[in-house]
Amino acid sequence: MPKTSAFASELTWPDYDAAVRNGQTPILIPIGAMEQHGHHMPLHVDVLLPTEFARRVALATGALVAPPFTYGYKSHQKSGGGNHLPGTTSLDGATLVAALKDVVKEFARHGVRKLCLVNGHYENSWFIIEGIDLALRELRWDGITDLKVVVLSYWDFVHEEAIAKLYPDGFPGWAVEHGGVLETSLMLALHPHLVQLDRAVDHAPATFPPYDVYPVKPEWTPPSGTLSSPKQASVEKGEILLDVCTRGIVEALRAEFG
Ligand code: ZN
Ligand code: MN
């Protein structure tokens, strides 16, 4: 079976068909967002990072990477700066759920029985679960009951030991890691030509009251759009993150998919 690429969309249909028809080859679907990431990084960070994790994991496991979801659910002020910011281009929750449901059912129709959603945008989380749940329900009505779907966000594989190396001055928490050390270090390691560290704005981690207000109060978001400073980001930290997350995801998929 001449499988020539980790990306499903780069295969011919007979090669793709041969790879997935018997249900053995897992498909990894990166899912991100078009969202502002401060003054120093492009709008597609949340797509580029899960796509690269999926590619590395696919090479290690024999899986295939599906085309990514390039738009995601609306940016939340406390995790992505807010949906009011320029450049951030989001889907309604119902749109994302419907699109994901359709794609999951299509892969199942091709014969795929092992699927993994590789998430790069926190706000997608519950909508991914809803899309999968609706797809599995409709597939059951068609008599397909053996599709297994793994859902993960790459940052959840960063263990305590790595956190200590990445944040020697204290970990601010994933919620305010928008455009901060995590994403900037990964981008420096993978796509340095897309990072302008000299334009990064240094500021204390954003703090918010324990409630939300709608319409949002723009003054709650740091003017840069980032929720913590990217100044301590580095290629070395990016390499640590690539290593721990890729290994963690590979282990998880071996445990779930065999
Ligand atoms: Zn992001
Ligand atoms: Mn995001």
Walk me through this protein's architecture.
- By secondary structure, this protein is α/β, with parallel strands linked by helices.
- The chain has a single domain (8-257), classed as Creatininase (Rossmann fold), CATH 3.40.50.10310.
- It is built from eight helices and four strands.
- The chain has helices at 13-20, 45-61, 77-80, 93-110, 125-141, 160-166, 181-190, 235-257, and strands at 27-31, 64-65, 114-119, 148-153.
- A four-stranded parallel beta sheet has the order 2-1-3-4, with helices on both faces.
- The chain is globular.
- The mean pLDDT is 97.
- Zinc ion is lined by residues 37, 45-46, 178, 183.
Write the layout of secondary structure elements.
Blueprint: H1 13-20, E1 27-31, H2 45-61, E2 64-65, H3 77-80, H4 93-110, E3 114-119, H5 125-141, E4 148-153, H6 160-166, H7 181-190, H8 235-257
Parallel strand pairs: 1-2, 1-3, 3-4
Helix pairs in contact: 2-7, 2-8, 4-5, 7-8
The structure holds zinc ion and manganese (II) ion.
Manganese (II) ion is lined by residues 33, 35, 46, 80, 121-122.
Which key terms come to mind for this protein?
alpha/beta; Rossmann fold; 4-stranded parallel β-sheet; 40% helix; binds zinc ion; binds manganese (II) ion
Q: Based on the coordinates given, report the CATH architecture.
A: 3-Layer(aba) Sandwich
Beta-strand share of residues: 5-15%
Number of helices: 8
Domain unit count: 1
Write down the CATH class: Alpha Beta
Order of helices and strands: HEHEHHEHEHHH
Q: Radius of gyration from the CA trace?
A: 19 Å
Distance between the termini: 20 Å
Identify the CATH homologous superfamily: Creatininase
Number of strands: 4
